[in-house]
Write a structure and sequence with these properties.
3 copies of one chain form a homotrimer.
Chain A lengths: L2 H10 L2 E5 L5 H11 L2 E4 L3 H9 L3 E5 L7 H14 L3 E5 L7 H13 L4 E4 L1 H9 L20 H15 L2 E4 L4 E4 L4 E4 L12 H15 L4 H21 L7 H14 L2 H7 L2 E3 L1
Parallel strand pairs in A: 1-2, 1-3, 3-4, 4-5, 5-6
Antiparallel strand pairs in A: 6-7, 7-8, 8-9
Helix pairs in contact in A: 1-8, 1-11, 2-8, 2-10, 3-4, 8-9, 9-10
Chain lengths: 273, 273, 273
């Protein structure tokens, strides 16, 4: 089922504007190229609006936000929304500082995002307008598990409904909902958390999937999550003795590069609630 | 013929100041080290001028320009010019936004660059003072091919003459001219376009080649283009099944690291018009 | 002896706030994850203070300092000091420009660092309040060797005493002193200097080691230096023909990821003076 979404990305090669953190930006660019999209970065307020206009999607990631890039996020966001581009928010560290929490909440007020993707703490922070996180990682109490799955599915559905955005809450188990349906996805490997930036890469790829599949946003989001998780599984199986998180990082992007529709359809592990 | 240029870089180990984008900056630094140069980055106006003074060359790349780094480009550029350092402009995204186009054009007005290196759209934008690009990639209509080669050689020669800089227009076929001669270079692999930053790496390496070979700038530029393309060919031949653009990135830098004069002389594919 | 220090990092997984340069920041994050710590980056003055409060350590690296991030360094530093977090300064390029030298010296005046880690030129600059460096690399005249070892040990001890910080002067031979004892460490490979950022990675890891071992700061610093150098040795032994500095970079982080206490204890090469 998801193969068509992947193939649309490879065919249309959407150009994605990323206003993103400088920690993982190189991996974001290479992951976008690997999945079939094309990246461009511009974060000056006087540049971002014009650059976003020539793109197909905008990925806003607040991982290293600052006083200069925040206005660029608002200006590019407004322009991209006007142009009906695919619009995604990755609220890195929302809940860890008031600047991050408030910026994310204000962006949500001013711009209607197609998708908001974050870990459990970040999504909970945005849903409640407050919260506490352990750095940029999810609070252990917040992890989605089989025990709290029904509750979390309901929570994500409700937040999707109230926000009007597809909500993608990713972790050991990934959830994606548009308020009606909720995908519960079990691809991926825990070792992906020992690499910086797999979440940032996913957000960029997800933006490309939504840009290339505008009629089925929720499915496009779910497809990108399965694809990324599956790439993590394939890369893990290709690790040799003595290899660690740095080589794993490279092999994940390689696996995205080599992913095809058949592999994705066979490897995707999800249920719909 | 080009081996002497490579060996000069390895012997003199020129220190190159890079005011460059944060997307590919790590690869730029490692590529410079791989080719035999030494990198330093500084982009605050109050730092860049003093830092550039202790260097042998300055590589200005406008890929993620902003209101703080633009003045640093002008100040460092003026100082480096005064000190007769190797001076290169990489006008990333010129034509994609007015900030980028205007900054590149204004830099050219205020500073005489030894080399301007860009893709076809960027170079055309600067030559005409206007233009449109598809993000940071070349417009398809602009690609140098055997069909339009004679026209493009003439175009590049003319722009080199009028600008007073060596013009390096890189793509599937690379052109480099000082206004008199034009190198037409056919090294490289199309897959290099699926990695972010091979162009940025080349610009930094090119600056090192010019800094280490100040008497023969055009040949130094051509040598660096052949070397980079050849590294892309060698790295491609070393790819294993299952590997993709992330491993390819690493193997290209590895191939630069291991390049020697004999390999370069034997592998360089160029004609002079 | 050092195994306990390593294991404390893996057990406590300290969260380290890095205000660092954008050249090597991705490797810094992956190296921190590899050693068992957890990274977070925040460099806006309005974000850094609050972010540092939820962390266990703060690593300030001035490699690409600017007018916006310098105030963030001071504010986060003051807050982290108040909270008794592990505090490290990496004065990249001190001596190469007055902005860098003055910022490092002013940070030392306002904040009492647990550790200052730099190369010989940087440390000498800070010790004397002036100096000259060849870019971000050490002046050749400054290299610690068997010839000047006794002198350099005394120098580092004295600077540690006068500054009240553990001084880690790293290079071909590494020195670490608290003013009383001085570790002389001979792990590592010269080829590590052909990769950008091994020093930056070490500073971040060192901060994690001090955060996880607050009772024995000097030993924690020495353990992290041995660990990093040993990772460089192991990675070097794993290099295949045709591989270069880019693959070496990945294999070093992989070796940090796979390092265990027994390997560290058996591989650490040091004397105490």
């Amino acid at each position: 089922m998801f193969s068509a979404y992947l193939e649309n990305v490879r065919e249309k090669s959407p150009l994605i504007h990323n206003i993103t953190n400088y920690v993982t930006v190189n991996d974001v660019a290479n992951a976008l190229l690997a999945c079939g999209g094309s990246p461009i970065m511009a974060d000056d307020p006087d540049d971002a609006e014009e650059i976003t206009a020539i793109c197909n999607g905008l990925n806003i990631n607040i991982g290293t936000l600052n006083s200069r890039t925040i206005p660029a996020m608002f200006r590019a966001g407004a322009r991209a929304y006007e142009l009906k581009h695919a619009l995604l928010l990755d609220p890195v560290g929302a809940g860890a500082s008031s600047l991050r929490t408030n910026t994310a909440l204000n962006l949500m007020k001013e711009i209607k995002f197609d998708v908001i993707r974050g870990n459990s703490s970040e999504i909970k922070t945005l849903a409640s307008g407050s919260g506490k996180t352990h750095g940029v990682d999810v609070d252990k109490a917040d992890v989605v598990s089989d025990e709290n799955l029904a509750f979390m599915v309901e929570f994500v559905k409700n937040f999707a409904k109230s926000s009007g955005s597809v909500i993608a809450l990713t972790g050991a188990i990934d959830l994606a909902s548009d308020g009606e349906k909720c995908f519960v996805i079990r691809n991926g490997r825990p070792e992906m958390g020992r690499i910086t930036g797999t979440g940032c890469q996913l957000s960029a790829i997800m933006t490309a999937y939504v840009a290339a599949n505008p009629e089925n946003k929720l499915e496009a989001v779910a497809a990108s999550i399965c694809m990324m998780g599956l790439a993590g599984e394939i890369a893990f199986s290709r690790l040799q003795p003595g290899e660690g998180n740095s080589t794993y990082r490279n092999k994940i992007i390689d696996a995205i590069y080599n992913m095809d529709g058949k592999t994705l359809d066979e490897g995707a592990k999800y249920e719909v609630f």
